[in-house]
Specification:
Layout (H helix, E strand, L loop, with lengths): L7 H4 L3 H5 L12 H25 L5 H36 L16 H17 L1 H11 L7 H7 L11 H11 L5 H4 E4 L5 E2 L3 E8 L1 H11 L13 E6 L3 H20 L9 H14 L3 H14 L6 E2 L3 E4 L3 E5 L4 E2 H6 L6 H22 L2 E2 L7 E7 L11 H11 L7 H13 L2 E7 L5 E2 L3 H15 L3 H10 L10 H20 L6 H14 L6 H20 L5 H11 L5
Helix pairs in contact: 4-5, 4-11, 5-6, 5-7, 6-7, 11-12, 15-22, 15-23, 18-19, 19-20, 20-21, 21-22
Protein name: ABC1 atypical kinase-like domain-containing protein
Family: Belongs to the protein kinase superfamily. ADCK protein kinase family.
Organism: Dekkera bruxellensis (Brettanomyces custersii)
C-alpha cells in the first residue's frame, strides 16, 4: 500500500471555493446551483492558469513549454475543432438537405406530415452518431416542447447514449491524478473492473472502500452520517471519461457558432438560440464536476431528513472527476411499472403518493427540484415499519439483504415477485422511494420564483386570462410574442375547461393541459424561462409514472392542495 500521507487539504471534497457556498446564501439573486457552477468554473480556470505558470517558470524547459502551449492553443486546438466541425457538417448536411420532406405526406392527428416524422428520425440518428454532446443536446431538446414540435420532441426522447466504456487502466490513472498519487489499491479493498453503467460523461463501478480511507477521510467528513457504514459495504464509484471536458467544450463552441448563425436569419430571433445554447452549456458543465452532484445529494438529504418514505444516497467522498457514494439496492421503477396486475393496490398507490408528494415538496416548499425524474432514476426499497408507521424497524443491513434476495433469478417472473411483495406487505414492509443521479437540479431564482408563484396562483383560482397575461409579461422576450390577445383567450378557454371538469368531479390530466399550453406557447412565440419548462417536463413525467401506479391520480388537485395546505406524506 502507498504509505504517503493523504493530504486532506487537497483531497477534501468541494474544495475551499465550493465549501464556502451554503444553501441559505443568495448572492446577487443567484441560486445555490448557480453559485456552485460559478465557483467550479473559477476554480478550474485558476487551476489551469496556475499549472501553466508553474511549468513555464521552470529554468531550462520553461521556454519550450511556453512554445508548446502557444502551438496547442493557437494551432492544434483550432485545427482539431475545425476537423470536428467538418465531421459534423458531413453528418448533418444530408439532414439539412432532406428538410423539405417535412411538408409532404399524410397528416396525423397532431397535424404533422408523414415526411416530418421520417425527417425527425434522420435527426435522431444523426445526433446518436455525433456522440455524447449531441445525444445530450437531443435529450435536452426533447424537453423543450415550447420551442420544438411535439413530434420532434417525441422522437428525440428515444435517444440513448451509445457511449463506450473507457478502460480500467484509464480509470486507475485518473484516480491516481485526482487523489494525489494514491492508487486504486489504496482507496479500495475491492473493485470490479467492469463498469455497471456507462453514460455520456462518466461510468460507474462497484467497490469497497479501504478502512484507512474511511478512518482518515470519510468518517471525519460525515460526523453524524455514520461514516463507518462505507466500510465492508459496496459503494458506487462514478468516474468521468478521460478527455470528456475537452471534447464537450469543442462541441459547445460549434453549437454556439451555429446558434449565432441561425439567430441572424429572419423570423428566427424569437428562439433566442444563443441563450439556449448557453443554458445547455451550463447544464453540461455542471455534470463535469462531481462535487456539485455530491452537494446536491447533501441538500436533498437535509430537505428529506425527517421522511421515512424517501431516501437519497450518502455522498461519501467526491473530487472534481470522481464521486464515491452509497450504493442503493432495490427494484427499479421500470420493473415496478411492469407489475400492472398488483393485487395490492394500496401498495402501488402508496408508491405513487410518495413520488408525487416528494416532487411537490421539492417544487413548492424547497424550491430545489430533481431535474431528471424519469423511471430510471427511481429505485424502490422495502423497509419494515412499526405498526403505527412512524418508525423504521429494519436496519440498513437487513434492508440490503432483502433487496439482494429480491434481485435473485427466482424473482425474474413478475408473478413470483408480486406474490413475494404481497407477503412482505402483510409483514408490515412498506415501500421507500430512492432518488439517484442528482447531477442536475432546477432551482428558481427570486424573480423566476415570484413569477412562477404568481402564475400558479392565477391558475389555482381559474383566472385563465390573467395567467395568459403573466406568461407574456414575464417571458424572456415579451416583444417577440405574436397575436397576444388570441393567446390570452386560448389560455382562458383552456383553464375554463379545467374549472368545469373540477366542479363536475372529473379527473383532470394535467399532462394534457400542459401539452396544450406548450403548443400555444410555441405557436405564439412566447419565450418561457428554461427552468419553467424543466418543471413542466418533470410534471409530465411524474404524472405518467403516477397514473400507471394509481389510475385515479389527479395531479392538478394535489398541486392545488399542496399549494394551500402543504404536503401531507413527506
Amino acid at each position: 500500500m502507498n504509505d504517503n500521507k493523504m493530504d486532506q487539504n487537497n483531497l477534501e471534497w468541494g474544495t475551499q471555493n465550493l465549501n464556502n457556498i451554503n444553501a441559505d446564501d443568495n448572492n446577487d439573486g443567484d441560486t445555490f446551483e448557480m453559485e456552485l457552477y460559478n465557483a467550479s468554473n473559477r476554480e478550474y480556470e485558476q487551476e489551469i492558469k496556475a499549472k501553466r505558470e508553474k511549468e513555464v517558470s521552470r529554468k531550462y524547459v520553461g521556454i519550450l513549454l511556453r512554445i508548446r502551449y502557444l502551438i496547442q492553443d493557437y494551432i492544434l486546438e483550432p485545427l482539431i475543432t475545425l476537423s470536428r466541425l467538418c465531421e459534423l457538417t458531413i453528418l448533418f448536411f444530408p439532414v439539412i438537405l432532406s428538410y423539405p420532406i417535412v411538408f409532404f405526406g399524410h397528416r396525423n392527428r397532431k397535424g404533422e406530415h408523414a415526411g416530418a416524422l421520417r425527417w425527425y428520425k434522420f435527426v435522431r440518428i444523426a445526433a446518436e452518431t455525433a456522440g455524447a454532446s449531441f445525444i445530450k443536446l437531443g435529450q435536452w431538446a426533447a424537453s423543450r416542447t415550447d420551442i420544438f414540435s411535439s413530434g420532434l420532441c417525441n422522437e428525440l426522447s428515444k435517444l440513448h447514449s451509445n457511449a463506450r466504456s473507457h478502460s480500467f487502466a484509464a480509470t486507475k490513472k485518473l484516480i491516481k491524478q485526482e487523489f494525489n498519487g494514491m492508487t486504486v489499491d489504496d482507496l479500495f479493498d475491492e473493485i470490479y473492473p467492469i463498469p455497471i453503467g456507462t453514460g455520456a460523461i462518466a461510468q460507474v463501478y462497484l467497490a469497497k472502500v479501504s478502512s484507512r480511507f474511511v478512518t482518515d477521510y470519510i468518517r471525519p467528513m460525515h460526523i453524524g452520517e455514520q461514516g463507518e457504514g462505507a466500510h465492508d459495504k459496496f459503494v458506487a464509484v462514478k468516474v468521468e471519461h478521460p478527455g470528456a471536458r475537452m471534447s464537450i467544450e469543442r462541441d459547445l463552441k460549434i453549437m454556439k457558432f451555429f446558434a449565432n448563425f441561425i439567430n441572424c436569419l429572419p423570423t428566427m430571433e424569437w428562439l433566442s438560440l444563443p441563450q439556449e445554447v448557453d443554458q445547455f452549456a451550463m447544464m453540461m458543465r455542471l455534470q463535469l464536476d462531481m462535487r456539485i452532484e455530491a452537494k446536491n445529494l447533501e441538500r436533498f438529504r437535509k430537505n428529506f431528513k425527517k421522511s421515512l418514505d424517501v431516501k437519497f444516497p450518502v455522498p461519501w467522498f467526491s473530487s472534481r472527476r470522481v464521486l464515491i457514494e452509497e450504493r442503493v439496492q432495490g427494484i427499479g421503477m421500470s420493473r415496478v411499472l411492469e407489475l400492472k396486475r398488483l393485487n395490492n393496490k394500496h401498495m402501488s398507490k402508496q408508491v405513487s403518493d410518495v413520488i408525487v408528494d416528494s416532487f411537490l415538496k421539492m417544487l413548492i416548499l424547497d424550491n430545489f427540484v430533481h431535474a431528471d425524474l424519469h423511471a430510471g432514476n427511481m429505485i424502490i426499497r422495502f423497509v419494515r415499519m412499526s405498526s403505527n408507521g412512524k418508525k423504521i424497524l429494519s436496519n440498513e443491513e437487513e434492508t440490503d439483504q432483502l433487496m439482494s434476495e429480491l434481485s435473485q433469478n427466482k424473482y425474474e417472473e413478475n408473478a413470483t415477485l408480486e406474490k413475494k411483495l404481497e407477503e412482505m406487505y402483510e409483514e408490515n414492509y412498506r415501500p421507500q422511494v430512492c432518488f439517484i443521479d442528482t447531477g442536475l437540479i432546477t432551482e428558481l431564482n427570486d424573480r423566476n420564483r415570484y413569477n412562477f408563484l404568481s402564475l400558479f396562483n392565477a391558475l389555482s383560482q381559474f383566472d385563465g386570462y390573467r395567467a395568459g397575461e403573466l406568461m407574456i409579461e414575464r417571458s424572456k422576450t415579451p416583444e417577440t410574442a405574436i397575436n397576444t390577445e388570441l393567446f390570452k383567450y386560448k389560455v382562458e378557454k383552456l383553464v375554463d375547461q379545467v374549472r368545469k371538469r373540477t366542479f363536475t368531479l372529473g379527473s383532470i390530466s394535467i399532462g394534457d393541459i400542459l401539452e396544450q399550453m406548450l403548443s400555444m406557447v410555441r405557436l405564439h412565440h412566447v419565450r418561457m424561462e428554461g427552468d419553467f419548462v424543466t418543471v413542466i417536463v418533470a410534471i409530465l413525467l411524474l404524472e405518467g409514472i403516477g397514473r400507471q401506479l394509481d389510475p385515479d391520480l389527479d395531479l392538478f388537485a394535489r398541486c392545488v392542495f399542496a399549494w394551500y395546505f402543504g404536503v401531507p406524506t413527506v
